[in-house]
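Quick one, probably user error.
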């Protein structure tokens, strides 16, 4: 049975005094992530108005600016939000909130909102058009089955991310202790020790093929490379090397370190945005060693202190500077550090690839039903 969104759903417009809400849970169009990847807290900026719009636990929040970015989150608690984030809530018991979440995640819905949006530079969803969106409303049993499948996949992806975050913290602790126990005996830079050369991937010479795209947006969206066609890529990229570690030269205060296991991505060529600098090891053990260095707070501070540009969108560090960083531990002892962190990095890489596969399955399920 086809129904209209507005007959079953409310666009909630509740407000609260700013002082009474937890601003650490503020959701804006900036910290709600693209490609259905939830929210990253805290937001960079909080409004200074006396009152603010709010959301409740289980509300479905969608950014109403540039809807083609597919920014959506099912709220896990109450909190404040931007006026440009719409909160959806069912008003009819025949529509489950979980099923509404799945419906609003679909490409069909986001394509509809994009096609009916107003404006060209920064299109906004037309709320009057949105409430007229039509979707299939099956019985409650089928709603539960479909929504459960999606929610289980998302839960597993979140769990993998939480485990990986903890493992990265463990690597950081091991690295700090190692640097303290075995300080550097001489000044040796990254460029002195590791290969930093990268070959160019020419898009015009590789038309109509699939690639794994390690881009800045894909990193920000749950750290998952996307399988894409070169037909959708406009500029040349970098080839990702075996045992290479990618570090963003763009806005280094937002740490972006990527150390993929290319054995998992062997079916297509892996390529990276030119906004990444690549430092290459000769083995999985050396890759783990490089990851330790690049992921350290000291290295991030080094990059931030050497950026050029006055605004976040233009702040970059030059590659020559990025690889001039002095390694802070005794290289004669590096085998000991490699043996400690290499198995942990392998575990992280395995989980990252599992998330990539889970995301593909989730997208397939969404496309099947919607």
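Nope, works fine. Designed sequence:
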């Amino acid at each position: 049975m086809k129904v209209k969104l507005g007959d079953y759903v409310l666009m909630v417009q509740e407000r609260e005094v700013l002082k009474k809400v937890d601003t650490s849970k503020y959701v804006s169009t900036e910290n709600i992530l693209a490609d259905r990847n939830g929210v990253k807290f805290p937001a960079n900026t909080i409004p200074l108005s006396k009152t603010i719009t709010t959301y409740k636990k289980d509300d479905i929040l969608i950014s109403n600016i540039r809807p083609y970015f597919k920014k959506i989150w099912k709220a896990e608690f109450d909190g404040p939000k931007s006026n440009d984030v719409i909160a959806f809530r069912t008003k009819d018991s025949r529509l489950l909130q979980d099923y509404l979440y799945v419906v609003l995640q679909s490409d069909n819905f986001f394509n509809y909102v994009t096609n009916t949006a107003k404006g060209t530079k920064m299109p906004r969803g037309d709320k009057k058009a949105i409430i007229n969106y039509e979707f299939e409303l099956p019985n409650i049993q089928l709603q539960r089955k479909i929504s459960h499948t999606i929610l289980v996949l998302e839960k597993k992806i979140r769990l993998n991310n939480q485990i990986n975050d903890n493992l990265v913290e463990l690597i950081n602790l091991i690295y700090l202790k190692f640097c303290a126990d075995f300080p550097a005996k001489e000044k040796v830079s990254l460029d002195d020790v590791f290969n930093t050369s990268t070959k160019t991937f020419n898009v015009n010479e590789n038309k109509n093929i699939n690639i794994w795209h390690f881009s800045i947006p894909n990193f920000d969206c749950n750290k998952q490379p996307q399988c894409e066609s070169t037909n959708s890529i406009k500029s040349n990229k970098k080839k990702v090397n075996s045992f290479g570690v990618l570090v963003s030269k763009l806005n280094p205060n937002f740490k972006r370190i990527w150390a993929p296991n290319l054995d998992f991505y062997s079916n297509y060529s892996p390529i990276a945005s030119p906004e990444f600098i690549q430092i290459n090891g000769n083995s999985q053990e050396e890759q783990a060693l490089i990851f330790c260095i690049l992921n350290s707070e000291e290295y991030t501070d080094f990059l931030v202190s050497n950026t050029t540009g006055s605004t976040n969108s233009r702040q970059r560090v030059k590659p020559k500077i990025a690889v001039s960083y002095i390694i802070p531990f005794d290289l004669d002892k590096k085998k000991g550090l490699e043996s400690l962190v290499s198995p942990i990095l392998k575990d992280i890489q395995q989980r990252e690839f599992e998330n990539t596969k889970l995301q593909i399955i989730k997208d397939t399920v969404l496309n099947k039903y919607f």
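The longest helix spans residues 140-181.
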